[in-house]
Amino acid sequence: MTASETILVPPKTVVSAKGDGSAVDVSGAANRVFLVTLAITKIIEEESLDLSLYGSPDGAAWGATSIAAFPQKFYCDESPLLLDLTAHPDVKFVRAHWEVARWGRGTETPMFEFGVTIQEVPANILKEAAAEAKRN
């Protein structure tokens, strides 16, 4: 995996029920720290999106609990999440999982349009951030 963005969920994916994105192989990454970006581009009122990330050693068997999660979302926005896999040396694959809910008036079916990308954080950025943290 290079420092370029890799797609976990294609942009403008429309969902109305829970689901999973494709498995992405992160075993070739030089670093085990990634920036994951959730971009919600369309919603309807009175609904929520829960998006979490799961890890796997082989891309087939997935852990029972997530390795990271975004805060629950209700609106269009773009949200970053730092995924640190250094504590999960067995994880070679990552995938997104989502749950949606709807309440209130109108249709009972939720609708979210979103996409999720993952990008390796380069070593020099990690070193700069660590140095900055020590200074503060």
Structural overview:
The protein is mainly β and 136 residues long. The chain has one domain (6-135): Jelly Rolls (Sandwich). 10% of the residues lie in helices and 47% in strands. The mean pLDDT is 93.
Keywords:
5-stranded antiparallel beta sheet, 10% helix, 4-stranded antiparallel beta sheet, Jelly Rolls, 9 strands, mainly beta, 136 residues
Brief overview:
The protein is built from one helix and nine strands; from the N terminus they run βββββββββα.
Summarize the topology.
Layout: E1 6-15, E2 19-20, E3 24-25, E4 33-43, E5 47-56, E6 68-69, E7 77-84, E8 93-102, E9 112-120, H1 123-135
Antiparallel strand pairs: 1-9, 2-8, 3-8, 4-7, 4-9, 5-6, 5-8
Discrete helix count? 1
Structural class: mainly beta
- Cα Rg: 16 Å
For the biggest sheet, the summary is: 5 strands, antiparallel
The topology string of helices and strands comes to: EEEEEEEEEH
Please report the first level of CATH classification, the CATH class: Mainly Beta
What would the CATH topology be? Jelly Rolls
The CATH architecture: Sandwich
As a percent range, the share of strand residues is over 45%
General shape: globular
Through-space gap between termini? 32 Å
Low-pLDDT segments: none
